[in-house]
Amino acid sequence: MNSRTASILGWVAATGTTLALAQQPAPPAPNFAPPNTSANGVQSMAAGCAMCHGTQGRVVAGSSLTGLAGRPKDEIVQAMAAFKSGQRPATIMHQIAKGYSDAEVAAIAGYFAGQSR
Ligand code: HEC
């Protein structure tokens, strides 16, 4: 042990750092906040899809991404479930889908289904 290591260990012992770390409570289990399925809540969740799927789910002409506006709700829900489970291969949607609970996905899908194309 060199003197530098010794002094770090001395500092750790003096400050009780390891003890403090050992006593830290386990991080809380991952949890979803209660879904905000009010009209505003759903709209702001759907806004998180807009950068790729267009404002209100309408993509610009010629976009390589699919618009979601006017798509049947069940189709969006099923696609999200397949992304989430990994059943449907994806470059990014498998991660995005994991960020929403089933209730949130249903609300977002309902929102897009109700938008005109
Ligand atoms: C960062 C860009 C990005 C964001 C944000 C994003 N998506 Fe996607 N989405 C994609 C891409 C890219 C695909 C094609 C599959 C893949 O490669 O992941 C896709 C595919 C989809 C599909 C399948 C479309 C089809 O025609 O089969 C659905 C449904 C979908 N996204 C819903 C959503 C919803 C709902 C949100 C918001 C909660 C969202 N996406 C946010 C990029 C995005």
**Rg to the nearest angstrom?**
23 Å
Helix content: 40-55%
Order of helices and strands: HHHHHH
Level-2 CATH architecture of one domain: Orthogonal Bundle
Q: What amount of the residues lies in strands?
A: under 5%
* CATH fold assignment of one domain: Cytochrome Bc1 Complex, Chain D, domain 2
* Alpha-beta content class: mainly alpha
What does the main sheet amount to? none
Q: Tell me, what's the shape?
A: elongated
Account of the protein in words:
Helix 3 packs across helix 6 (102-113) and helix 4 runs antiparallel to helix 6. The chain has a domain at 39-113: Orthogonal Bundle (Cytochrome Bc1 Complex, Chain D, domain 2), CATH 1.10.760. The chain is built from six helices and no strands. The protein is 55% helix and 0% strand. It has helices at 3-15, 17-22, 39-53, 73-85, 93-97, 102-113. The termini are far apart. The longest helix is centred in the middle third of the chain and has 15 residues, at 39-53. By secondary structure, the chain is mainly α. Bound molecules: heme C. Heme C binds at residues 48-49, 51-53, 65-66, 68, 76, 79-80, 90-93, 96, 100, 108.
